[in-house]
Request: fold
Amino acid sequence: MELIVEEISRAKKLIGRHKFVSQQLSIGRGYNNDIILSDPHVCADHLVLKAVDDQWVIQDLDSLNGTMLLNENKLTQPQLIESGDIIQIGKTQLRFMLPNHPVAESVKFSTAEILVENIGRWPVIITMLSLFTALNILFMYLNTPTKEINYNSLFLWGLGLTLGYALWPLFCSLMSHLNKHETRIADQLGVSFVIINLFWINEFIEVFLGFNLSSSWYWQWLIIFLSFALTCMMFWFNFYIAFTQSAKRRIKLALGCSTFIFASLFVYDLSNQPDFKGYPEYNSTIMPPAFAFSSASTPEEFIRNSDDLFKAVDKKAQQQKD
Amino acid sequence: MQRIAVLLFCLLCIKVNATEQAQQIFEEMAPSLYQIRLIDIATSEKSTIGSGFQISENGYIATNYHVISGYAQYPEKYVIEYEDHQGNKGHLDLQTVDVINDLAIVLLVENLQPKHFIISELSPERGEEIYSLGNPHDLGMIVVPGTYNGLKKEAFNDRIHFTGSVNPGMSGGPVVNKFGEVVGVNVASSGNQIGFLIPHDKLVNLINQFDSQVEKTIDQQISEQLKANQKKLLAEVLAGQWQTKSFASQATIPDPGVDYIRCWGDSNADKPDALMFKAVTNCQMEENVYISESLTTGSIDMEFHYFAAPEISTVRFYQLYKAQISQASAGNRVSKEEVTEFECQHDITGVAEQNIKNKSIVCIRAYKEYQGLYDLMYISASVDRNNKALVSHFTLAGVEKDLAQQFSIRFMESVKWN
Reply:
């Protein structure tokens, strides 16, 4: 008769799985057993399983620490086993399965899985890392206000920044390793840097809108929303690759982590506000003429719009005086 | 040789004569000269000192507003005290102020004495010997002879240019002619024997308006004076058609054509290895209205920058240019108690017939106590040329909305490329 014995951890994670075809199965520390355990709390001849009338019966052989059917009392007499039963002997847990035990339906490769697989290829990863490094070096170069440029330090700086950003996907891999999952470093790196590079696009949109739209447009919310969405996406993929959890739980976790980060930034920003700002805070974004798409308003129109500013400061002055 | 001796002797005569006259005036007028002090109530120590002089039999004393400004702003923190030539001390009551001309009138409540200064009816002649009285650095009353050199050129509010030492502590002291009549009030010094005085007619005006002024609170008086002053200033600035002048031979910028807005220029043409050529013209009024240690207002300043870098890419030029316009601020001194924070707006602006397109930003803050007055800051950066740029900026401090808007439109319309 067939019996499948699984060795599992206390967190019910599978450690080893064996299939036996026989009428009797002995378990213990002694080398004469069919299943040999090294747990010191297990006796040399601890227990025996016997096939009786197409059913398996378990019997403790008067062991020192006994045999526990999970969550029940010690076995005192032979007992029938049902498929999926877990026993504890010493500190070891074993699960018994019968060949006809039902299994979950097979899972189709999800689009996310296919995407991650594709992004996790080394050509993609190297492209993404190079793009990130190159853009950083480019902006550093553009912002250097001197004729002489130390390209060496520029390059090292760009590389260092990329390494710094790579710490996050590596940290995710480490976490999954510590949780006894596959590390999938390539997948983590690929996905993280694709999303990090998407932030460049977000930044471009911010600068473009800030330059072309007047202050009467409240487009900043769009940028905050996009940044939040990208952050969420990043966490979602990191969790997807690193751990197995239900879809609902993954979304909850990703949302929670992003909210935490944005809230922390917001609180940090608030706590760093000076008591009084004697200087104006304005949007000074400008772009080269090629990016200027909006039509110009006349000085009269522009200054007429300032009526609202006068009203706003009047209101503030009134409130603060009261 | 003989001639020189005679000359020297004559000079000596004049000198002796002048000193004697100064001595005489000083002795005669000493009883109506006072040291004015602000006493901090919490510590009973002096926090500001200045001078003052009696202008009527019934104990009215004139001094500088800035000497007693602490009390005018925080009457619960200070008391105004005097000390006369015999060392007697007592309290003074603040009656009226003129912040534009830095004058104040306080009232002697006790120890009344009738002796007082007479205010001259005529202005001195250029070159006339006049005598400044006051108590510099708390060292005791002194008299400083000096010369009247007419009114300061390039000033919006009249000031007498006095050649002679006016030192801190002498503020508020009278300046008299050889007949002992007041022709001015000490107010400021720019070191090296250059002093500034308030002309006597400003004090006469304040005395003439005294009855109507004392009815109002000090804050009301200040508010009205600030409003009248900015109205006069901007009316004058906006009166004529503005001239334009060439800037860095690439652009034209406004020239309001009033001599009290003076321009200074600089560029980095002396640094051949600079990546960007930069030129700056800075035009400002060299005077403002002092309200308190933490608030000055009533001034106009403008600034123009030209940037060019034909050798670098447009993208890099704009990246560097962007950093130049992010830090603009208003020029006057303020604190949280007096004004709100700025509110700003921005847009792309331009005039169809003018060949310039700008990113323009305007920021406004309101005065809390002096309702209806604002500080307006404007900065505009050209965004239509690939490798050159023009930045124009101005600040109006303590102006009303309509005048500020008129000025802004006029300014915006007169900045363009050649």
